[in-house]
Fold this protein.
Amino acid sequence: MSTSRAQSLAASLQQRSAEYDRRLSQIDDELGELNRLAAAAGKRRGDKKPGGDDTQKYRLGSIFSVLSSRFIELDDLALLGLLADAHYTITLLHFSTIDDGASLLDVFNQLLLDPILARKFRDEGAKLRWEWNRALYVSEVESFAQSKAAQNPKAAWRRKPPTRGQIYLISEAVRAFDFDPPNVSTRGEAFEWLRKVGGNPRFAKKEES
């Protein structure tokens, strides 16, 4: 065997070994997550059916790591927008160059390398994601805003730490609409920030800039 061929074979074996190590790591992660879900089975509202909603979400999400080693590069909001617009996306796929052995996820990755397309789909995905959080926003902000407690600027609740719902909504708004993270440390500050930007985040973003 020639030296060059031996080196090529060694490099190929090293690449395969690295790929197997990556897959084993993913399997270990999945087993760990499944163990965690099994330990928590029956303790959440999502466990009304065998497996529960969390298990189903995890399994659906793991599809991406199975289909492409580049799944971590995907912007979930851009992918959400892309998947939501079937007519436009199918038209784009019709004109796409698809390599032999490529998965549909690889094609999506390729489409989202175009900054104009990526921006368009991310904007749509951000809008859909925020609408999905609408019920929580109504509960944390709109409904509470009608209460007597909300009308009192000196109420004790305003000095308490932000609620988990407020923290989640703020993080979602910052991520989806590219807001600067707000400097809020109390429930009242979080409430006022969400009330200011949450009704129409895209409009609020324009005002901010």
The first helix runs from residue 3 to 39. Residues 133-208 form one domain. The mean pLDDT is 78.
